[in-house]
Amino acid sequence: MKKNNIAIAVFLSITFITLIFIIYNASMPVKPVVSITRDEKLMIKKPDSLIEYKNEDNSFIVDNDKTIYLSMDILSEKLYVKTHFDVEDNVAIITTLDKVIRFYGNTDEVKINNREANHIKPMIIKDGQPFIPIDKIKEELNIESKIIEGTNNIVIKSYLDNKLIGETSRNNVMLKKDKNIWAEIAGKLNKGDKIEIINQDNGWVRILTNEGYEGFIKEKYIKNIQEIAGAKPKVSKSIWQPEKGKILLAWESVYSKNPDTKKIKDMSGLNVISPTWIRLISPEGRLKHNIGKDYIDWAKKRGYKIWALFSNSFDPKLTDKFLNSSLARERVINDLLKLMKANDIDGINIDFENVYLKNKELLVQFIRELTPVFHDNNLVVSIDVTVIGGSDNWSRFLDRKALGEIVDYMAVMTYDEHWASSPVSGSVASLPWVERSIERILEEVPAEKLLLGVPFYTRIWIETPSNTKPNKMDVKSKAVSMNVVRNILNRNDIIKLWDKEAGQYYAVYIEDNKIHKIWVEDTKSIKLKTDLVKKYNLAGVAAWRRGFEIQEIWDVIDKNIN
Fold it and tell me: In this protein, which residues make up the domain named SH3b (predicted)?
């Protein structure tokens, strides 16, 4: 009996102490969550986690005006922001689909789409790292930020992230600093208070309140849980399409002077012409051009859109130095824009070839910087790409997926299957090869942005027995127009056979004791290739080049794709 009385007394004592503890905590005023050291703390809310940084982590800065500065690593790695920092030029760049924001460390300037943005504070350089003031640009970056009142803590969220929300089901719900009932209380929630769920563990839920306080509450005190999808990121859409039908583009090869337009016949269905007018000539971004006013007047009268081609002169060393300078890239963008506006040109066709693989990301960065500025001025941006292949300088340097997310159109150069110096003779663009190439690129780039490249030329392959390699042939080639091939095929001694697999005629003949081979490009082969535009619903056709075609080819393409 005595032992039972002792047990009852102990039980009542524990119960009494517990009740006192609960009553005391319930009567405490609501207080925000603060770090033990009261140092500033950055909290980045992700769909199922809360990533925390202290001020010594070199991730953020808060100035005396409560402006929040984030490191570029935080912006890019945690908040999906496209960033670039040029250490040499001391320029930090942020790009979105329609904005390029530049922070100049040497002058404290800020520009948006090449216009001064005096309402935005300059960046801060700390320990050699740039910190970007986000307050005036956070909507552009799809982020929201909040400094929690009465604390030194900052909460950052991305609008692009999904979130799990709910509300409290009763009054006097204690917000704990840890997931146990004895943990210190961080605040108190009442019935119906809105919360955001971070994660759940063994009956406890880590939450974030609307005011920005974080902590743990029991799972049973949450109701009306629902998942809210994040905002969909903006998707690049072409700013121009033909009024009807598909795009039919032809490149105009201009090396020294513009062609005599009086000699150019009608080109049925053509709606875009791309003269090879502009090229890069210095690492600092100087340009050389031979834009022709008479040619522009002629094209405008015919109703053609003009996309001036801009090339890197196919010089990898020059391109490397140019792409590595943010100031050079900016100069080129500004100078190109001036040329477009001064000459009433409708867009640009970027043709960068023979580029080092190490410049892959920098080429994408250049296009990210150029496109918002051009779109701001209603100028179309297109880029030429080779088929996906194994060559570093001619194929692998192209990030087709990233480029396709930026530009209006991408012209796929589905020709040169067998190139000028190929060790074996073969087709310039056999039908199966062209189709496979398009199918591979369609895995990375939407069909509505792709232009199918077609050749208006072919190669005559000349084979002779090798003097150094037994049972081998030495191979040379020369590119010729459709008319040249037609004249050759009119000779009586030519054997011409239909190559069903290649989708074109194959011809062979002997001349000067040498074997000559031609895989013919004509109306029939071009018809089969342009069938792919309909089959895959591509944006249109890009032909290399005007002047190499036979006249009837225009009607064939126009009727086939339109």
Answer: 160-226
Alpha-carbon Rg of the chain, whole angstroms?
Answer: 33
What pLDDT does residue 390 have?
Answer: 82
What are the angstrom distances between the C-alpha of 238 and each of 241, 371, 375, 421, 537? 7, 11, 10, 37, 15
Global pTM value = 0.91
Return the beta strands (E) in 37-139 as ranges: 41-46, 49-54, 60-62, 68-71, 82-86, 91-95, 100-104, 110-112, 115-116, 124-126, 129-133
Nearest to 349 by CA among 310, 306, 323: 310
Q: Are 553 and 248 in contact (CB under 8 A)?
A: no
Rounded CA-CA distance 71/44 in Å is 13
Q: Pick from 464, 445, 449, 456: which is nearest to 512 by CA?
A: 464
Supply φ then ψ for residue 433, to 5 degrees: -65, -45
The beta strands (E) that lie in 115-203 are given as 115-116, 124-126, 129-133, 143-147, 153-158, 163-168, 173-176, 185-189, 194-201
For residue 261, what are its two tokens?
A: 């337009």
Mean pLDDT of 210-225: 93
Predicted local confidence at residue 312, as pLDDT: 99
Q: Which domains does the chain have, with CATH numbers?
A: 41-157 (3.30.457.10), 163-228 (2.30.30.40), 235-413 (3.20.20.80)
Return the half-sphere exposure (C-beta side, CA atoms, 13 A cut-off) of residue 460.
Answer: 18
Instruction: Report strand pairing: 49-54 vs 41-46.
Output: antiparallel
| Strand duo 153-158 + 143-147: pairing | antiparallel
* Helix (H/G/I), strand (E/B), else coil: 452: strand
Q: Which residues contact 138 (CB under 8 A, 6 or more apart)?
A: 144, 145
User: Which of these, 111, 203, 187, lies nearest to 150 by C-alpha position?
Assistant: 187
Q: What does the pLDDT average to over 260-272?
A: 98
- Amino acid making up residue 336: L
| Structure letter (DSSP) for residue 408 | S
Bridge partners for 475 per DSSP: 463
Enumerate residues 6+ apart whose C-beta is below 8 A from 219. Answer: 200, 203, 204, 205
Q: What confidence category does residue 14 fall into, taking pLDDT thresholds of 50, 70 and 90?
A: low
The Cα 261–Cα 346 span in angstroms is 19
3-class SS at 248? strand
Tokens in use for 444? 């990375």
- Give 522-558 as a DSSP string: SHHHHHHHHHHHHHTT-SEEEEE-TTSS-TTHHHHHH
Cα diameter, the chain: 128
3-state helix, strand, coil in the chain (%, to 5): 25, 35, 40
Check if the beta carbon of residue 557 is closer than 8 Å to that of residue 245. no
Q: What gap in Å lies between CA 451 and CA 156, rounded to an integer?
A: 41
Please say if the pLDDT value at position 4 is more than 60.
Answer: no
Do β-strands 91-95 and 100-104 pair in parallel, antiparallel, or remain unpaired?
antiparallel
